[in-house]
Fold this protein.
Amino acid sequence: MSIHIGANPGEIARTVLMPGDPLRAKWAAETFLSDPRQVNGVREMLGFTGTWQGHDVTIQGSGMGMPSLSIYANELIRDFGAKTLIRIGSCGSMQAHVALRDVVIAMTASSTTTPSSTLLREVNFAPCADWGLLRAAVRAAEARGVTPHVGGIYSSDTFYDEREDLTGQMTRHGTLAVEMEAAELYTVAARHGARALAVLTVSDHLQTGEALSSAEREQGFGEMVEIALRAAFDP
């Protein structure tokens, strides 16, 4: 048991999928895992452990934003021995060729600041995905007939961002999409020697203003979970 995760020793798997929404964690566990059981309910940030094709898996909500994600990633690794953490969530497309429902696999994650910035001080640390996980996720996606977009994303620390100039520059520099957690996940994993990846579904488009409905988001979320699970246990 840790401060924010009420699981007992042995109840958290070494492989953890991390959606932002705790109710999405519940849905994913009930949909994809065999015999899922709730292992965390502290502050209603639900976590579940079960098996997928014989492998132990935990699906733990991370909340919104890098400060919240940082709490759970640190405790999962430090206190429960998690070794593979995969963010599964939504993102906003920043490029014309990245359409709604497309899958984005984040090779790198830029940010203006993260909770880890105080540790790194003057260094502009470049958070990146684990190569083995990234390669496995691409293989898993292509095996399902999905052609993912692989490249850099932007982890913003504000949802209602009014920095149109910054958005424009990120788009100009080829950033595929924006979300709010991956840069800190990659940094925390690097610090503790764990593997990390973000597999994302495009739920809205910054250039066109298009957005998926709640039902459409759920369908896209399922594809993303399947890719993440297959990547985690790629032989």
About this structure: The mean pLDDT is 96. The two ends are 31 Å apart (CA to CA).
